[in-house]
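Lecture 7 notes: from sequence to structure.

We start with a single chain of 293 residues. Read the sequence below before looking at the structure.
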Amino acid sequence: MPIQLLDPKSDFVFKKIFGTEKHSNVLINFLNDLLYEKHKECMAKIVEVTYVQTIQTPDSVSGKEMVLDIACTDSTGQQYVIEMQLSRFSGFERRALAYLTRVHSRQLKGGMDYDKIQPVFLLAIVNDELFKGHPYYRYDHKLVCDQTGGHHIKDIHLTFFDLSKFKKTKISELETMEEKWMYFLKYAPEADLDSEAYKMLIENSPIFKEAFLALDETSWTDEERALHERSVITKIDTNAVIKYNRAEGKAEGKAEKERIFILNMHEGGMAIEEIAKWTKLTVEEVEKILTGV
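Now the structure, written as tokens:
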């Protein structure tokens, strides 16, 4: 009987596969396969990663706190921010740039030379249309000089993947490691691990055996299953609250709607850090709303 696989696009599942020490080898292969060939003029191939703090505190009292999905540094000091977004929202690309530039600037410590600052890379996967009117599922952004066309400043790199525009639906159609990762993210729950196509995939690319099996909930601990179930319920409840508020057109005003929205998410079991990410507030602002301060 085929194993029922969870959806890697789910926030909790995505972080379990790519954001834990247990599966750090999956993250290393994922980053190398998607970024190295495109950026090898300024990126060293990754051999190991160290996960770093995903809550980016503001640079000033009035600044904005940022909550990343996954952040890591490799053995050469290069830094990576990895984001999974189910739906595109207004300002998503600017938020991605803001995240990346903060990570970049915070490398600079007292007495440190500027030439010691390492490149930073953002890899964002979006299950929604990103740049309308364009057929591509991959978009790479970097600093390019208008006059020379040269890539003289090699420190900032943003790569977006638009899963809505990835059209291959069968393992047998996949030709590159990039396409295999896109298939994994988009169609993994539908994969048959007993099929000849899957067996051929892991024979040619063994890392996918670990990646696919990490989606099998039966291999998780009781605590992991409980956390995943709570995250699913919270997401359902959050979407229900959003739909209800839109349908009812509540008259309490924006601040009151936001307060009710946050209270419902918290009661549904969502962590304060996740609420902050959803609402684009700081953790401190969310805590004030929850405590009624």
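The chain has a mean pLDDT of 82. Keep this in mind for problem set 3.
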